[in-house]
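Quick review question:
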């Protein structure tokens, strides 16, 4: 059965192109033109992924993203932003968008981003064996994609989970932001603030004191590393 993608964009020309490319790639596609209709469509029949424009009538994309993140099913979100709207893009990532593209964008690149996010949402990436990673009350099961802290299940986005698992697989190793973009996002180039935002969100969820992190530490002038408790 084809995976379902909900496209939310009030620009009919852009939406028609996006829908056509996604359908050609084998996805079942539904389109709505405003934020309220998007929430209604998700409630009626949850999709496997939402392509969400920021600039929407009725409810804007940021509010739609926030409300979707309140749902327990954690539907993945690829956000579309105007290329100059850096503050909105960062806010979208902070609210839990899994990926983003700046307009104007290549429809082929969008299909690749959608495919990547859906592949990760379905389980461990191909070629990577399932693992159970543990450290001081933090447990990450990469097969079913479940993370727990002291027995309490954490609500992580796809990228947050992938970033945490990658760092825990390589304890005490410092990664540059560009390396993390490549290895976690699969981007050979891109806005490195994406990594910074996701690290900040992860710290809020796994650190006892996010302002003074013990697990994911900053390596000044380099990037980040995961510091195991027994180091």
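Suggested answer, residue by residue:
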């Amino acid at each position: 059965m084809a995976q379902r993608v909900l496209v939310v964009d009030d620009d009919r020309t852009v939406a028609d192109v996006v829908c056509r490319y996604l359908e050609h790639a084998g996805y079942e596609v539904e389109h709505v033109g405003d934020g309220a209709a998007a929430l209604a469509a998700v409630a009626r029949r949850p999709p496997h992924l939402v392509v969400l424009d920021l600039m929407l009538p009725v409810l804007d994309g940021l509010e739609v993203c926030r409300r979707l993140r309140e749902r327990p099913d954690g539907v993945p979100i690829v956000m579309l932003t105007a290329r100059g709207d850096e503050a909105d893009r960062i806010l979208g990532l902070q609210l839990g968008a899994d990926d983003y593209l700046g307009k104007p964008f290549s429809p082929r690149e969008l299909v690749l981003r959608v495919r990547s996010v859906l592949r990760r949402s379905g389980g461990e990436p191909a070629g990577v064996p399932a693992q159970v990673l543990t450290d001081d009350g933090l447990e990450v099961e990469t097969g079913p994609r479940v993370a727990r802290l002291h027995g309490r299940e954490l609500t992580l986005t796809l990228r947050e989970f992938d970033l945490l698992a990658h760092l825990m697989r390589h304890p005490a190793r410092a990664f540059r932001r560009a390396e993390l973009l490549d290895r976690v996002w699969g981007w050979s180039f891109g806005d490195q603030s994406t990594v910074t935002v996701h690290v900040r969100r992860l710290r809020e969820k796994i650190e006892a004191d996010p302002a003074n992190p013990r697990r994911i530490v900053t390596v000044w002038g380099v990037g980040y590393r995961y510091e195991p408790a027994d180091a």
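Why it works: The longest strand covers residues 77-82. The chain has two domains: 4-121, 132-226.
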